[in-house]
Design brief:
Two copies of one chain form a homodimer. By secondary structure, the first copy, chain A, is α+β, with helices and mostly antiparallel strands. The first copy, chain A, has a single domain, classed as HIT-like (HIT family, subunit A, 2-Layer Sandwich), CATH 3.30.428.10. In chain A, 26% of the residues lie in helices and 21% in strands. Chain A contains seven helices and 15 strands. In chain A, the strands form three sheets. Chain A has a ten-stranded antiparallel sheet with strand order 3-4-7-9-8-13-14-12-11-10, sandwiched between helices. In chain A, strand 1 and strand 2 form a beta hairpin. In chain A, helix 1 crosses helix 4. The radius of gyration of chain A is 20 Å and the shape is globular. The relative contact order of chain A is 0.16. The interface between A and B is large, with 79 and 80 residues. Strand 1 of chain A pairs antiparallel with strand 6 of chain B, so a sheet runs across the interface.
Chain lengths: 351, 351
C-alpha cells in the first residue's frame, strides 16, 4: 500500500508509492554522455568567459584569465540578475516589483572537461567547497543582498546547458520562498521544543540507522524521511551550524571527504544519473540561528515533475528512502566496475 | 534590466529576465507529435482500462465499458494512491505518516485520438468541465478526503505518458502545501483588506488592460503579474466563487467557451507546445470561503526547472507577461494557418 509521509520541517507531503515504480516509463535514467566540441569553460578558452573573480592553483605571478588554474569562478555570461544599480522597490497597484539586482557566478570546478564530482579526487572537491565559502563571504559584504544560493545542475535532463563540471551562485536581494518556509518551519519547531529540528532528525536517524548512506566524524549523508525523488540525499554537519560560510578549514576538509564518498556512491548506484545539488544555508546577516541547520540537498533526476506536482507541491516517489539508503550504503567503493549498479539490480529495487 | 516581481497571493518571487530569452537553449519548443500505435484510451480498447466510473454520450441502453461514448472517466490503472482502507495516521519518532489513501482517476476527454483541447469543439470542452464537476461532487462525499486536484499534462515534455487527450483527478486525505500557501496568503490579505485578493487582481487587470488574453461575461483569462513561465495563464470566474464544483450549468457553458478560446490562442501562438493545467479550488467541506477564488492555471513547458528553482522556489522567466498577453490577445482566430505563430515571430518576441 502506498504511504503518505510528511516532511517534518516544511510540512510537504509525499506519496511513497512502490506500485508506481513498476511502470517502465517511471524509472528511465537519461545517462549523461560527454559529447565534446568547443567548451568555453576549458583551459585555453578563458577569453570565452567574463574576467574571473577568483582562481585557485596558478603559479605565483601567472596572469589571471589564462591557463594553469585548478578552479575558476567567473560571472555568468548570461546572468539572470544584474549587479549594477539599486533595488528601487516600487508598486503597481496591488503588485510589488523591484529592479533585478543580484550576482550570478559560475564556479568552474575543474580544468578537466571529463571530470565529475564522482570521479574527482577529494582535494578537488575541497577546492570547490573552499570557493563556495570564499565567494559567499565576499558577497555577504554587499548590503543589497539578503540571500546567496549555490546550486549545481549535472546533466542536460537536470537543466545543465554546459557539460563541463560547474556550479552556480546567485546572490539575491530577497529571501526566496522555499528558504522562508524552511526557516519558519524550523522556527516553529524550536519555539515548541527548544531544539533544532535538523539536530533532532540527525539524532533519530543515527538511532534508527535505516536511512543513513554514509558518515564521518563531522558530517552525515542520509535519505530524508519524506523525499521528493528516489535517491534524494541530504548531507549535513552533525554539530549544530546554521551558516555554511562560517565553516572552519578542518570542517571543510571533512565535508569534502564525505561529499566525495556520497557522490561516488550515487554514481555507482546510478551511473551518470543527472542531478541537482542545492546548498541551503541561513540568510546573510542572520549567521547564528539556533533553530536552523545548513545542509546540502542532492536530487537525482529520475522522475518527471508534471501537473500534479506543480499544482499541489505534493510529490510521488516510487522508491522508499530506506531502500535508496540501503542500496547506496551497501555499495563497496573498493570494488571496481559497475556490477552492483542499479541498472542491473533494478528489478530488485522496484519489486 | 531584469525585474523582480512578487506574486501577491503566495509571495513567490520571479525574475523577469528578457536578456536570458536570447539564449538559444532557453526557448526551444518540444512540439508534441502524434506517434500512433496501440492506445488504451481509444474506443474499442475499453477493456484496457479499469471499469469506468462515469461516461457521457452513449445511446440509452448501451452497455458500459464499450464504444459509443464521447467522454469516459476511469480509475488510473497505476494509481498513486489506493482507495481501499483507512488513513491510520501514525508517527515514527518525530516523523508523521499514514496510509496512502486516495483516488486517482483518468478523464478520457474525447474518443478521438488526435483531438486536443485546442482543436475540439466547445461542446466537447463543456463535457470535460461537466465531468470534473460530477466527479468532484461525488468524491466530496467521502469523509476521508480533504482535497481534490484536477490536472492535465499535455505532451511528453510536460509529463504525459499517453498521448490521447486526458486529464487526471486525485482525491487526497490532506490539503497539499501549495494550496495551503494560497489559502493562507489570500486569508492574510482578506484579514487586512476585507476583500478577496483574486477579485482585486481581476479589478486591477481590467483597469490596466495589459495582461488580459481574453474574456467574456463570466470569465477572464490573463497572464499573471509574476508568472513562473512564459505564456503562463490564469482563467478565473469574474464574480467571486471559491469552489469549482458549485459552478452552475450556465457558468459551465461560459467557462467552456472562454477556455476553448484560451487554448486555441495558446496553440496558435505556440503550436503543439507541451503544457500543464491545474485546477485550484477550495478544500472539501470548505465550499464558501470569502477570501479564496477558484481558478485554472495553464503552464506551457518552455523553460527548464533546475537546481535554482528547486532550491529557492524562485523562477526565471525570459518573457514579461505583458508581452505574452499581447501576443496571445492579438492572434486573429478567424484567420486560418499559423502565419502569426511565435515560431516565425520568435525574434520579435525575445528581442
Amino acid at each position: 500500500m502506498p504511504e503518505l509521509r510528511r516532511d517534518p520541517v516544511i510540512g510537504r507531503w509525499v506519496i511513497i508509492s512502490k506500485e508506481r515504480g513498476k511502470r517502465p516509463s517511471d524509472f528511465v535514467i537519461v545517462q549523461e554522455r560527454i559529447k565534446g566540441g568547443y567548451c568555453p569553460l576549458c583551459p585555453g578558452n578563458e577569453h570565452s568567459t567574463p574576467p574571473e573573480v577568483l582562481a585557485y592553483g596558478r603559479e605565483k605571478g601567472a596572469p589571471p584569465n589564462g591557463p594553469g588554474w585548478s578552479l575558476r569562478v567567473v560571472p555568468n555570461k548570461y546572468p539572470a540578475l544584474t549587479s549594477e544599480g539599486n533595488l528601487d522597490k516600487r508598486t503597481e497597484g496591488i503588485y510589488d516589483k523591484s529592479n533585478g539586482i543580484g550576482t550570478h557566478e559560475v564556479i568552474i570546478e575543474t580544468p578537466r572537461h571529463d571530470e565529475t564530482m564522482a570521479s574527482m579526487p577529494v582535494d578537488q572537491m575541497l577546492l570547490i567547497f573552499r570557493s563556495y565559502r570564499a565567494r559567499m563571504q565576499a558577497l555577504a559584504q554587499d548590503d543589497r543582498f539578503k540571500f546567496i544560493i549555490i546550486f549545481k545542475n549535472f546533466g542536460q535532463a537536470a537543466g545543465a546547458s554546459l557539460e563541463h563540471s560547474h556550479s552556480q551562485l546567485i546572490a539575491l536581494p530577497v529571501v526566496p520562498l522555499n528558504i522562508k518556509q524552511e526557516l519558519s518551519g524550523s522556527m516553529r519547531y524550536f519555539e515548541f521544543k527548544e531544539r533544532c529540528i535538523f539536530c533532532d532528525i540527525i539524532r533519530q536517524e543515527r538511532s534508527q540507522n535505516i536511512r543513513i548512506v554514509c558518515e564521518n566524524d563531522d558530517f552525515i549523508t542520509l535519505c530524508p524521511f519524506a523525499p521528493r525523488s528516489p535517491f534524494e540525499m541530504w548531507c549535513m554537519p552533525k554539530d549544530h551550524h546554521s551558516s555554511f560560510p562560517e565553516i572552519s578549514d578542518s570542517q571543510l576538509e571533512s565535508l569534502a571527504r564525505l561529499f566525495s564518498e556520497t557522490m561516488q556512491r550515487l554514481d555507482r548506484a546510478l551511473p551518470k544519473v543527472p542531478y541537482n545539488i542545492m546548498l541551503h544555508t541561513s540568510p546573510i546577516r542572520e549567521e547564528n540561528l539556533e533553530y536552523y541547520h545548513w545542509h546540502l540537498e542532492i536530487m537525482p533526476k529520475l522522475t518527471m515533475v508534471a501537473g500534479f506536482e506543480w499544482g499541489t507541491g505534493f510529490y510521488i516517489n516510487p522508491t522508499p528512502p530506506e531502500e535508496s539508503a540501503r542500496f547506496l550504503r551497501e555499495i563497496d567503493l573498493n570494488k571496481k566496475g559497475t556490477s552492483d549498479s542499479l541498472l542491473s539490480r533494478k528489478e530488485r529495487l522496484i519489486s
